[in-house]
Design brief:
binds magnesium ion, Alpha-D-Glucose-1,6-Bisphosphate, Chain A, domain 3, about 475 residues, 16 helices, 20 strands, 7-stranded mixed sheet, TATA-Binding Protein, 5-stranded antiparallel sheet, alpha/beta
Amino acid sequence: MNNHPTRRENTMSRLMVSVSGVRGEIGRTLTPEIAAQFGSAFGTMLGAGATVVVGRDSRPSGPMIRSAVISGLLACGVRAIDLGLVTTPGAALMTGELKADGGVVITASHNPLPWNGIKFLRPTGLGLSVEAAARLKQIWESRDYAYVDPARCGTETTNDSTHATHVGKVLSIVDVKAIARRRFKVVLDSVNGAGGVGTAMLLKKLGCELIPMNAEPTGLFAHTPEPTEANLTDLCAEVARCGAAVGFAQDPDADRLALVDEHGTYIGEEYTLALCAAYVLGGRTGSAAANLSTSRMIDDIAARHGGTVFRTPVGEANVAGRMLEEGCIIGGEGNGGIIDPRVVPVRDSMAGMALVLAYLTATGRTLGELVGDIPRYAMIKAKFPCPADAAPKVAAAARKQYAGRKGAAFNDSDGLRIDLPSGWVHVRASNTEPIMRIIAEAPARDAAEALVEEVRQIAEPFVKG
Ligand code: MG
């Protein structure tokens, strides 16, 4: 044993408890004890007699964490329905379908294999509100659990209909026959996550000639699981080699979708939402929602079709919540997270794939051609150390500096986003680390870099020392 862990190990092994749930390294910070405690806390929050669905991604630690969470739930008199190995959108969908009082997904999303996590869902399938997440954390910290007397312990049942139910819902939003006539050749990289089984079912029903990669849900990820360009070189090569119309990449819990065009070119996760929005807003009248850090492409697309885009604080539940409030017909995040509320009000790679194939079918054009139709921007992401109390001062100073700029518009619902005719910049404090993130976008790379640099200089006096 190393008695002197490095600084990096200390950071890496922290148990992260946030509004999105709990994440930690298995056997180090995320243990069966911790998982049972959070099961007990969630059971206490919902109360005896509540029903909770529980799903897990394909990680080898999934059954261990699942059993511990369910143990805590049962101790509080909760009825647990084990969905088995399912995607995050699948678990969210079943929370609603089975009229459960809440849901739990055992997943660490795109984190590597040593990690796992516990995500808690509301009855609609959305992640917890900030208030509910704070209450859950407070119950966990107090260890004040409402255990029931032995005769009233909860019951556990299983339900294996998630994939079929999910596929049925996704098929209901597109013209299946029209897509099937195209006989699209599709390469699907599921990175040995939870997406492979249900997505293969979906693509076959859509008449696709499917070339699966890393389809077995072993949790032994064939490559670094985040669906970024650097991690998808094999998928790009396979799409080019077999002349496929499109390559789809999922993250391990299948809520994010990255696309590869017919030339084998990775086209970037920001385009997933832009393309889906172009299809949906082109065919139906309605509005869209996206978080403040998402590309301006969706605004350009909405403007073409006379639609509105609502911008929300970063966080999937914020986007989904706003979509439900405003009745948006499409929304999501620039990380490949597509939300079509007709399927489920959370990010769903399977809904995203169906919309992309429907767009190709409706236009008769290739993915590369459709990407070429969308205005191209350069996005720069940067961060700098910043104590939490300095963050509001940085935002206020930036607002002051840009206030006189022609056409400047401000959104301060999460840090500060400044929209200018020539681009935008969003600066916000991290929830988990003492840093500020700056994201800027402009038609040219040097203009985006200049925006980042300008905000960095405004911040400098506040973060010194
Ligand atoms: Mg994910």
